[in-house]
Specification:
Helix content: 25-40%
Largest sheet: 7 strands, mixed
Number of helices: 11
Bound molecules: zinc ion
Strand content: 15-25%
Distance between the termini: 17 Å
CATH superfamily of the largest domain: Medium-chain alcohol dehydrogenases, catalytic domain
Shape: globular
Length: 367
């Protein structure tokens, strides 16, 4: 049968729709019909400047997807035609004996030296149909949703999973506590919704630009949420909002810039957990951002915790799936306004829109 695949020829290039033959799924395989793809900031980076992880061009990008199971191969029992599924980006390496990704591995796929991801080393979902290999179907990250979840909601699975990995890697720092989010992009927007769902006492959102900050506060804020423009004595203003505590309990860096790390480390107090969620990368590579910590006074006696997460494993995927299916993030749909919805014929426009300063989540409709 015929498939429609969009190849991006090169960074800053164009998407060429190509008609290709696609076969029936083999033993253990499933064929998916793409329903929605949402656009990640990493897709915008690939689109505008490329990424060393994309080893050959033209490339099939986009990794945030919800799909309908279209056909299943012999031996597949987990999925049936008609199932709504969503996928993660970090995937097993495909070696069944791998100590990270294999049948008896730890599940820490991103630690595998042969780590791979959809829309990167493995083709993404800028295509109407795809066939997943048996190891992908067996080991994940693929989740089935019931009739209560829409294709729009399901395509938030991957970015939400990445967010929840960061928010839950260390326990006891969100529920009934003060959370500081640096940046007001989509990851902070997920973090804000998740913090409230997880029972945070207060969420302080810090952002340089008013446009996005205002949008997030208006659409997702409530009496527990405070937004601060990043100007003046921002450290003093954040700490004032933390009262009666002397410091925040959890800080998530969701802005890819050195000043975000400077601000985060200035806010570290007693018992604060910092999640270095957004890495900093430029044309010159990854800059060194140095910060001195006293392992005795800061880490041992003041119980500070510096951690990071990027990507997601099956753990984050399962957490995100439960939150979406359980209706615990009822405002997810507000992340995509009318100007952030595109049909697959307008992939380039979708990628450009996702790069705008005021956009949160661009969704591409393949139905
Ligand atoms: Zn993503
Ligand atoms: Zn592996």
């Amino acid at each position: 049968m015929k498939n429609l695949v969009y190849y991006l020829d090169k960074p800053m290039g164009s998407f060429t729709p190509t008609e290709e033959e696609i076969g029936e799924p083999g033993p253990g395989e499933i064929r998916l019909r793409t329903l929605r793809t949402s656009v990640c900031q990493s897709d915008v980076v690939i689109y505008t400047q490329g990424l060393p992880r994309i080893r050959s061009w033209p490339a099939v990008i986009l990794h945030e997807a919800s799909c309908r199971v279209d056909a299943v191969g012999p031996g597949v029992t987990k999925f049936s035609p008609g199932d709504l599924v969503a996928l993660g980006c970090d995937i097993p390496c495909g070696d069944p004996d791998c100590i990270y990704c294999g049948d008896h591995g730890t599940g820490d796929w991103t630690s595998c030296p042969n780590t791979q991801a959809t829309g990167h080393e493995f083709p993404g979902f800028a295509r109407m149909y795809s066939i997943l290999p048996d190891w992908f179907v067996r080991l994940g990250p693929i989740v089935k949703f019931g009739p209560g979840t829409s294709a729009d909601q399901a395509c938030h699975l991957e970015p939400l999973a990445c967010n929840l990995e960061g928010m839950t890697r260390v326990g006891n720092c969100v529920e009934n506590r003060v959370v500081v989010l640096i940046g007001a992009g989509s990851q902070s927007c997920y973090a804000l919704q998740s913090s409230l769902a997880l029972g945070a006492r207060k969420v302080i959102l810090v952002n340089r630009g008013q446009e996005r900050l205002g949008r997030v506060l208006e659409d997702f804020g409530n009496e527990k949420v405070v937004g601060l423009r990043w100007e003046g004595d921002i450290v003093g203003r954040v700490l004032a909002e933390c009262r009666p505590f002397n410091e925040p309990h959890f800080i998530m860096v969701n802005a890819s810039a050195e000043p975000a790390y400077r601000l985060a480390t200035s806010l570290m107090g007693s018992g604060t957990v910092l999640d270095a969620h957004a890495g900093v990368k430029g044309a010159q590579g990854k800059p060194r951002i140095a910060h001195e910590i006293d392992l005795n006074r800061d880490i041992h006696y003041r119980l500070q915790c510096y951690q990071a997460t990027h990507g997601s494993s099956m753990r984050g995927i399962a957490l995100a799936a439960a939150m979406i299916a359980g209706g615990r993030l009822p405002l997810l749909g507000r992340m995509t306004g009318l100007s952030e919805r595109f049909t697959h014929q307008r992939l380039g426009d979708a990628l450009r829109r996702a790069g705008d300063r005021d956009s949160l989540k661009v969704i591409v409709d393949w139905s």
